[in-house]
Amino acid sequence: MKANSPLERLYNGIIKENPTFVLMLGMCPTLAVTTSAKNGFGMGMTTMVILALSNLMISMLRKMIPDSVRMPAYIVVVASFVTIVQFLLQGFIPSLYDSLGIYIPLIVVNCIILGRAEAYASKNGPVSSLFDGIGMGLGFTVGLTSIGIVRELIGSGKIFGMTVFNGGATIFILAPGAFFVLAMLVALQNRVKMKKDPAAAPKACDESLCAGCTNHMCASKKNAEKGGTQS
Amino acid sequence: MGELLHVSSSPHIRSKVTTDYLMKMVIVALMPATVAGVCFFGWKALLLVCLSVATCVATEGIYETLMHKPLTIWDGSAVITGLLLGLNLPASAPWWIPVIGGIFAILIVKQLFGGLGQNIMNPALAARCFLLLSFTGQMTNFSADGGLVKLVDTVSGATPLAAVKAGEKVDLLSLFLGNTQGTIGETSALAILIGAAFLLILKVIDWRIPCTYIGSFAIFVILFGGHGADGYYLLVQLLGGGLMLGAWFMATDYVTTPITKRGQLVYGVILGCLTGLFRIFGASAEGVSYAIIFGNLLIPVIERLTVPTAFGKGGVKHEK
């Protein structure tokens, strides 16, 4: 696939750089609103709409926004879209609006949105930025929905509100369950990825990404570079 | 001459105390409480405890076999986890409760953190809290119909702590012997104290944590319990619920206690205050499990703050 083509952007957002399972961004809504599949899907779609629109807008304005005030400018753009979407949700899907609560206005400071604006939309054209936003948003939706499905199924025996079995381990709907399920799903997708492509297994580190990388092998390498002892 | 030149690196003196020995002694010490539980709650209780032990050992064995790790099921640590988990269940729990709890305790809390010595929480207690949050109904259903000995109060199904919180009276002697409602292993203070004395005499456990735990809890109850220095209320709080089992057997777990002596005292006081806080000001009548788990998480901080001064360090410099 050609770099920056719409299709490549979608693949990148959903699979290669999935914001939830690979980039580990936007953990606050990921852990907080995924108590059911419906909430996870709703949150993911809401974020996707805002992400796509703000990416498009920021990309079009990228030559006009002065470098020194780009962050406030991004926030203004994102906040406008969040306000619009919030009113639309309140008007048309009040049940989702109620269950997402404070996490809708908090999309303004969602690190996926600001991250894509900074890392992608401010450097690329409007079309590929729009598809980057859609791809990342879909990736986020996939992540949140799958966490929501697992939590809802184990926690209350339902999928999208339909009863599969009675009872369930309530802890999976509570906060600890979010951590359990996220960890299991990340482990699972790493496993699948490593099986498909053994080269994807964490081995060495890419120098340019070292700052944000939590791989322990990188950490020991960083220590070694600093002259620290390697355990 | 050749024998004189035998060279080896330290340590030169080894203790005969091994993990196996310690674990086996703890298992022996838990036997009185288990027997008392079976006496008061019947064969169903024994079945639950056995199921819990079997699940824990099997989970450990299967995980270690699949992961190609050295098999540690014979060191007794999984047996203790299973035993403690079983003793922390109500006798009326369905059979799948200890199975889920045992798998959670060993797989998630112990093995995923690296096995014995690496777990940040007491596995049995973490599993109990997991079960309590997940299956609240089954875990708080104290309505066992009694075993070999007829229980005093089998109708209301209230634990002594809940009864006292609701303003009812409980009989202190049956509370001490264990003839009351509660989880399988926690009711009989007498049986637990026999086991604890056994461990103290063998020096398997240290007095510091249990004594500071119980002591600070007693002080907390006197200060904030709303009953003043009322001996009856204090004794109910000390003997009822999981305090005895928790203080002597679960707060003293080697893996999840501070190493430093001062740290152990601090840890005991923290546990006592937390238990008092949860029991008196919390919605539930019981708070030992959450207090110990919370204390477990504070251990790195406690150890960091109570590092003893090394010999020769920190002295006052004399002027010449």
Automatic annotation (TrEMBL), chain A:
The keyword Chloroplast does not apply. Its EC number is 7.-.-.-. One of its GO terms (biological process) is electron transport chain. The chain crosses the membrane at residues 21-37, 43-61, 73-93, 99-117, 129-149, 169-188. Keywords: Cell membrane, Electron transport, Membrane, Translocase, Transmembrane, Transmembrane helix, Transport. It is found in: Cell membrane; Endomembrane system. Its main location: membrane. InterPro entries: NqrDE/RnfAE, RnfE. It is a multi-pass membrane protein. GO terms for cellular component: endomembrane system; plasma membrane. It holds the Pfam family Rnf-Nqr. Coiled coil: none annotated. Part of a membrane-bound complex that couples electron transfer with translocation of ions across the membrane. Belongs to the NqrDE/RnfAE family. The complex is composed of six subunits: RnfA, RnfB, RnfC, RnfD, RnfE and RnfG. This is Ion-translocating oxidoreductase complex subunit E. It comes from Oliverpabstia intestinalis. The gene is rnfE.
TrEMBL record, chain B:
The chain crosses the membrane at residues 21-43, 93-113, 125-144, 183-202, 209-226, 232-251, 263-282, 288-307. GO terms for cellular component: plasma membrane. GO terms for biological process: electron transport chain; transmembrane transport. InterPro entries: NqrB/RnfD, RnfD_bac. Its EC number is 7.-.-.-. Keywords: Cell membrane, Electron transport, Flavoprotein, FMN, Membrane, Phosphoprotein, Translocase, Transmembrane, Transmembrane helix, Transport. Its cofactor is FMN. It holds the Pfam family NQR2_RnfD_RnfE. It is found in: Cell membrane. The modification FMN phosphoryl threonine is found at T159. It is an enzyme of class 7 (translocase). It is a multi-pass membrane protein. The complex is composed of six subunits: RnfA, RnfB, RnfC, RnfD, RnfE and RnfG. Belongs to the NqrB/RnfD family. Part of a membrane-bound complex that couples electron transfer with translocation of ions across the membrane. This is Ion-translocating oxidoreductase complex subunit D. The lineage of its organism: Bacteria, Bacillati, Bacillota, Clostridia, Lachnospirales. The gene is rnfD.
